[in-house]
């Protein structure tokens, strides 16, 4: 597998071996071509999965796992796209199984798969804004109400004395001032009258 990829793509593909799995790092322009070569020439006819990895501040990685069932060989295909304009060609024309994975990666990371037949939200409710698996996505609910899995004294909002309040990871320090926390008992205007 490695020799065939090196012969076809030369220095345009960076290869590594780990635990019997070949990893091929390519530029976005070679994403589709290497996947097609893997299917048609290397025997990687089984599409296992595809996902994104946020690498702030400038890039998102997209990773696909392809498998050759006859030769029992794995290929991990990776590329990096800019966070500001994450676009890749779809693999749905090569692998029907890429459809669901590309929709999920579009929804969760914002990667647009050009040519996808139905690139619409898959898991999140209608009207949801943002891409929740990006590291810059603010988990506002962690600021607005106590986290039920509190481990530190005072995090649960009752019981032992509290420490200085800190914001959850990824929440900007001035965010709480712009978006004040509701009262501990909820919103008194929406409470039922007794």
TrEMBL record:
The record's region (Disordered) falls at 146-194
Question: Which Pfam families does the entry link to?
Answer: Complex1_30kDa
Question: Which superkingdom is the protein from?
Answer: Bacteria
Q: Which GO terms describe its molecular function?
A: NADH dehydrogenase (ubiquinone) activity
Residues covered by the NADH:ubiquinone oxidoreductase 30kDa subunit domain: 25-141
Segment forming the signal sequence: none
Family named by the database record:
Belongs to the complex I 30 kDa subunit family.
Name recorded for this polypeptide: NADH-quinone oxidoreductase subunit C
Read off the lineage from the record: Bacteria, Bacillati, Actinomycetota, Actinomycetes, Streptosporangiales
């Amino acid at each position: 597998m490695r020799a065939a990829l090196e012969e076809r793509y030369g220095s345009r593909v960076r290869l590594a071996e780990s635990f019997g799995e070949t990893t091929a790092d390519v530029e976005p322009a070679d994403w589709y071509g290497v996947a097609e070569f893997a299917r048609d020439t290397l025997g990687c006819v089984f599409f296992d999965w595809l996902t994104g990895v946020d690498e702030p501040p400038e890039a998102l990685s997209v990773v696909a796992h392809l498998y050759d069932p006859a030769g029992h060989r794995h290929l991990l295909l990776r590329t990096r796209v800019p966070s500001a304009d994450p676009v890749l060609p779809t693999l749905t024309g090569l692998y029907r199984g890429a459809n669901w994975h590309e929709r999920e990666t579009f929804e969760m990371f914002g990667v647009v798969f050009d040519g996808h037949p139905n690139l619409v939200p898959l898991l999140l409710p209608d009207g949801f804004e943002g891409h929740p698996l990006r590291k810059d996505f603010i988990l506002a609910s962690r600021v607005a109400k106590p986290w039920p899995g509190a481990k530190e004294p005072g995090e649960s909002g009752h019981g032992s004395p509290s420490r200085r309040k800190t914001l959850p990871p990824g929440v900007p320090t001035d965010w709480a001032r712009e978006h004040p926390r509701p009262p501990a008992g909820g919103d008194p205007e929406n409470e039922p009258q007794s």
